[in-house]
Amino acid sequence: MLRPYYLRKLSSCFLPTFCTYKTSAIPELTQVRYKIKRGNYGELQDKDVTFFESLIGATNILQDCQDDLHGYNVDFLRSVRGSSKLVLRPGSTQEISEILKYCNQRRLAVCPQGGNTGLVGGSVPVCDEIVLSLARLNKILSIDDITGIVACESGVILENLDAKTREAGYVVPLDLGAKSSCHIGGNVSTNAGGLRVIRYGNLHGSVLGVEAVLANGQVVDLMSDFKKDNTGYHLKHLFIGSEGTLGVVTKVAILCPAISDSVNVAFLGLNSFDAVLKTLKNAKRHLGEILSSCEMIDASSLAATTENFNLKTPIEGFPFYMLIETSGSNVEHDMEKLNGFLQLVMEKGDVADGTYTSEPGKMLEIWKLREFIATALTKDGYCFKYDISLPLRSFYEIVKVVDKRVGHLAKRVCGYGHLGDSNLHLNVSCPEYSPELHKQLEPFVYDYTSELKGSVSAEHGIGFLKTKYLAHSKRPEAIKIMRDMKLLLDPNGILNPYKVLN
After folding, report:
1. Taking the CA of residue 324 as centre, how many other CA atoms within 13 Å lie in the half-sphere pointing to its CB?
2. How far apart are CA 288 and CA 409, in angstroms?
3. Residue 300, phi then psi, degrees to nearest 5
4. 3-class SS at 466?
5. Considering only Cβ atoms within 10 Å of each terminal Cβ, which end of the chain, N or C, has fewer?
């Protein structure tokens, strides 16, 4: 077995526990900032509130108090803000069915909301839509210890679901920086990717079935215990990634892989993006089946984490970093493969320095350097975030182009993301929201992405903020089919209006 003498040992310093950053600034109303004309929807009346109270109880309704409503009206990034005056917190599929049936008859617009961790304004009202919170649908229904199939309600927090699944010897095939607050239903509704798509793929491939409620209150039971079921159209896919515009997901069945007995994490420093690509190629070839994550972090992204959360990095002074994780079933086999890979990339000169570990505590500290970036950037003040897919050969070029274009107006221009999946997180931070900077970034970023045949949304969906740019990644005929499906399933357009399809 190759000895790791050539790699610097991980610092034993303690890294602080993560805490969500909250700024005191209140964003301008979305309807005002973006000049949105309210749709032809019904106005909330006292009789409506009376009906909802009779259905779910007054204790499960929030209204009037702005402090109570604020968290439901403002998104995670504090970039968009609605003006909803009513939040409903039903506790069952049947209650959601009755709520939607009533709202559809009254033409009352509804905004389904999970953990509200989205980055494109998809989970908060644009105008005064009723917020339908799924937080009380938080039951784990079953975990099959033979098949690894997990069934649960949509309001289960991802981290809680993963913890329970691990007790049965399995792991949820999705890991996100927002796992401590995001809901599995929201993950499914946005077809979340996360940190290990290179190993497990998107949720489209792991979700076996869903239960969803249509705009008219009809419950559609598409739950399943089978990976293979070729009986007609795969209707579950209508709701996976539809962002609550076609129906409200209430239950999910997920196929979970077995827990890995052997996990290793390497944190590497590189001097060029060309070296990053060469290292990715060698990781895929020489780590093969045990490669579970391959992340890229540029120097500016890492600096945001270390500066704004006072974290320590085991290596520093490089323009690029890679976080590579392996997961397998044989400790000696996996370590031999990892050692061989690391020796190869260092001998080639692609990796200049690095560290690796299999100790859970130290792996967690390394992962914090990556997972905290999104929140760390919000501590700069305001952050424009672009979650895009780009061809690997051009993966980082947009960061340099944008820096040259707007760097003088920004505090930080940086890029990081899921290198193994071609998913880049381009971020431009500034002390506060700047209309001038916004105009310089949009539509430029999306035009540039489109020219490279990339996707304007890799994993967070279209939401509200990207509706104007859907055509950059979808052909007109595809958008027409999407509109036809929306009209069929939600003819009154009450479900998450102003989102996805403009």
Report:
1. 28
2. 43
3. -70, -35
4. coil
5. N
Contacts of 5 (CB under 8 A, 6+ apart): none
- Exposure letters 451-463 (e unless 16+ CB within 10 A, then b): ebebbbbbbbbbb
Q: Among positive and negative, which fits the CA dihedral 322, 328, 331, 334?
A: negative
Residue 11 burial by Cβ neighbours in a 10 Å radius (0-12, 13-18, 19+): middle
Structure confidence at residue 25 (pLDDT): 66
Q: Distance between CA atoms of 472 and 350, rounded to whole angstroms?
A: 35
Q: Is 8 helix (H, G, I), strand (E, B) or coil?
A: coil
- What is the rounded CA–CA span in Å between residue 272 and residue 244? 41
Give which of 203, 294, 181 is closest to 256, Cα–Cα. Answer: 203
3-state secondary structure of 453: coil
Q: Which amino acid is at 258?
A: A
* Backbone dihedral angles phi then psi of residue 467, each to the nearest 5 degrees: -60, -35
Give the C-alpha separation, 112 to 133, whole Å.
6
Tokens of 175: 């890991």
- Reply yes or no: is the peptide bond before residue 257 cis, omega within 30 of 0: no
CA distance 328 to 117: 31
pLDDT at 78: 84
- Six-digit token pair at 491? 């003819």
Fill in the amino acid letter for 353: D
The reported pLDDT for the residue numbered 3 is 36
The pLDDT value recorded for residue 460 is 85
Element (H, E) at 62: strand 61-63
Cα–Cα distances in angstroms (integers) from residue 204 to residues 132, 273, 366, 410, 427, in the given order: 24, 31, 29, 37, 27
Q: Which residues pair with 178 in a beta bridge?
A: none
Q: What is the pLDDT of residue 457?
A: 92
Q: What angle do CA 241, 461, 396 make, to 5 degrees?
A: 130
Q: How far is CA 493 from CA 44, 86, 464, 499, in A?
A: 16, 19, 15, 11
Residue segments in the chain with a per-residue pLDDT below the cut of 70: 1-25
Tell me how far CA of residue 166 lies from CA of 10, 76, 146, 150, in angstroms.
27, 28, 13, 11
pLDDT (0 to 100) of residue 139? 98
| The pair of three-digit structure tokens given for residue 336, joined into one six-digit string | 């031999």
For residue 24, the model assigns a pLDDT of 45
Report the run of H or E that residue 153 belongs to, with start and end.
Answer: strand 149-153
CB count in 10 Å sphere of residue 258: 11
- pLDDT for residue 79: 85
Bridge partners (DSSP) listed for residue 213: 219, 248
How many CB atoms neighbour CB 269 within 10 A? 23
